Amino acid sequence: MAALKNIPIEEIVEIARKCWLKFKKESIFALYTPFSVCLASGTLKIETFQHFIAQDCYYLKAFAKGYEAAEECTDDDDAKVGLSEMRKNVIKELKMHDTVIQEWDSDMVKQCGVNLATVKYTDFLLATTSGKIEGVKAAATLATPFEKTKLAAYILGAMIPCFRLYAYLGKEMLPFLEGETTHPYKKIIDNYASEGFEELALQNEDWLDKLSVTLTGEELDIIEKLYQEAMKLELEHNLSEDRLVVFFNFDLTCTVVDSSAILAEIAIISAPKKSDEYQREDQVVRMLSADLRSTWEDLSKQYTEEYEQCIDTMLLSEKAESFDYGRLHKALEKLSDFEKRANVRVIESGRMILQDGCNNFFQSILKNEQLNADVHVLSYCWCGDLIRSAFSSGGLDVLNVHVNEFIFEENLSTGEIVNKVECPIDKVQVFSKILSNCSNDKKNLTVHMGDTASDLLCLLQAAIRIVLNPSSSLKRVGNHFGVSFIPLFPGIVEKQKIFAAGEDSSCWNGLSGVLYTVSSRAEIHAFILGS
C-alpha cells in the first residue's frame, strides 16, 4: 500500500464524518437515557456510576485488542505508529480505572461482572477483528497486505462511534456544570467535553479516513453498517411504569402541508374545466375549476389576514408578568370565534404527506406493550377520513381521531361539516373529556405535542408539553401570557434534580406554564421510547 502521507488530502474519503452525520440522530437516544439525564443533573447514584466505570474497563480492554489487531493488519508505517499510540493511551486509561476502582474499595465494583450490553459490544468488536463480517473474508484468509488494510479500516469503523458519541454527550452536558461547584460528576463530564477528548475522537476518525481511501463503494458501505451497529449497541432502552396518554395536533405537527390546502387542491382538480352544455336540469351545478381556485385563494388570503389580526388583537392587552392560564383561555376564545367563522365561510362557498419518521414514531409507541399507551389526534382538519387515510397507509389503524367530519350521502360529500373540533376551546374540552374517561387503575401520564397557538390550552393542561417547530403565533401568544419555552433536554435534567431532591414526587404536572421545545422528532422518540 502506498504511503498515505503522499495522498492529497482532498482525495481522502471522509467516511468518518459521513457516518457521524448519517447516524448522529441515534446519539439523541443516548442523551435521553436515564443514565445520561441523571449524570448531567448530578443525581446519578454512586453505585450506578461505579458500575459504569467497571463496565468501561471491559470496553477499554476490547479497544486495546482492536487497536492491536488494526495495527497488525495495516502495512502503512505511519498508521502502525498512530494505532500503537492509541493502544498505549487505552492501556494507560485502563490502569487509571483500575486505580480508581481499588480506591473505592467497593466489593460490588471489584466483583462486578460484565453485563449483557457490554458483552454484546465486546463480542461484536471481537468478531470484527476476526473478520467475521458479512461480505468479508475471515482474518486468517486475508492473503495480501491490501486486503488486511481493509480489515484495519473495518475495525476502526466499529470502534470510533464510541469516542464520537461520548464527545457529543460531554459537550451537551457541559452547560449543566455552569455555576455548579459541587457537581459530583464534573470531572468525567469535563473530560468528555474537553479539547483533549475531542482530539482523541478526531485522531481516530482521521485514521479511519486514511485507511479507507482506497476502498470501493461496497466496502465503504460495510464500514457504515459497522458504525451503525456500534452506535446501536451503545444505547439503552427506557421503559415507563405509567399509562401513557399521547395527544398531538395533526396539521403541520405531523404533516408537511396543511390538510385544508390538500383538500382544496383535490376539489379544484376534480372540478370541471368548462361548463357542461348538456347538464340535466336536476343536476347540481358545479363550480368551474378556475372559479374554485380563485375562491379558495380569496378564502386563504382572508383567513391569513384575519388570523394575524386576531393574534394582534389578543396581544393588545397588558402582558402577563407571570403565567396566567385564565387570561390565556379567555383570549383564545376570540381565536375560537374566528376559527368558527372561517369554517362557515368555507361551507357557504361551496394524497396527504406525513413528516419523516411520523408513522414510525407512533407505530413504536403502539407496539411497545410496556408503555400501555393510548394515542389521540386532536385536529381542526375538516375531514377525519383524510387523517385516518394518512395514517392507515403506514399501518396505523388504531389511532383515536377527534376531528370534524364531512357529511356524506351515497359516498359523496354534501359539503357540510359535522363540527366536533373547530377551535382551541373545543380541543381542550375534548382533551379533558378523554382524560375523565380514562381508567384510574394507573396514573395517567399525559403527553401533548403541538405547534400552533390553537394547541396552547391542551399543551398547558398536559403533564408533558412538547412543541415541535413552534409557530410564531404560538410563541407570541405564549410569551404574552407568561408561558416559558425551555429546550426539552435541559428541562428533563432540571426535573431530575427536583425529583432527586424530593421536592416534587410527581415531577410532571400540568398548568406549570412551561412548554418544552424540540428541534426534531428524534428527541421526542428518545424521550418517550428510549432507544
Walkthrough of the structure:
The structure is a single chain. The protein has 531 residues and is an alpha/beta fold. It has helices spanning 15-31, 34-41, 46-73, 77-104, 107-110, 116-129, 145-173, 186-193, 195-211, 217-234, 259-270, 289-314, 325-348, 358-367, 384-392, 424-436, 456-461, 472-480, 488-500, 521-529, and strands at residues 243-248, 374-378, 400-402, 405-409, 412-418, 444-450, 464-468, 484-487, 514-518. The strands form two sheets. It has a seven-stranded parallel sheet, with helices on both faces. A two-stranded antiparallel ribbon has the order 4-5.
Strand residue content: 5-15%
Task: Please give the share of residues in helix.
Answer: 55-70%
Structural class call reads alpha/beta
Side-by-side strand order of the widest sheet: 3-2-1-6-7-9-8
Distance between the termini: 40 Å
- Please count the beta strands (DSSP E, at least 2 residues each): 9
Determine Rg (CA atoms, Å).
Answer: 29 Å
Largest sheet: 7 strands, parallel
Identify the overall geometry: globular
Q: What count of helical segments does DSSP give? A: 20
Low-pLDDT stretches are 1-13, 236-242, 277-285
GO cellular component, one term: cytosol
Domain Thiaminase-2/PQQC: 34-235
InterPro entries: HAD-like_sf, HAD_sf, Haem_Oase-like_multi-hlx, Thiaminase-2/PQQC, Thiamine_Salvage_TenA
Protein name: Thiaminase-2/PQQC domain-containing protein
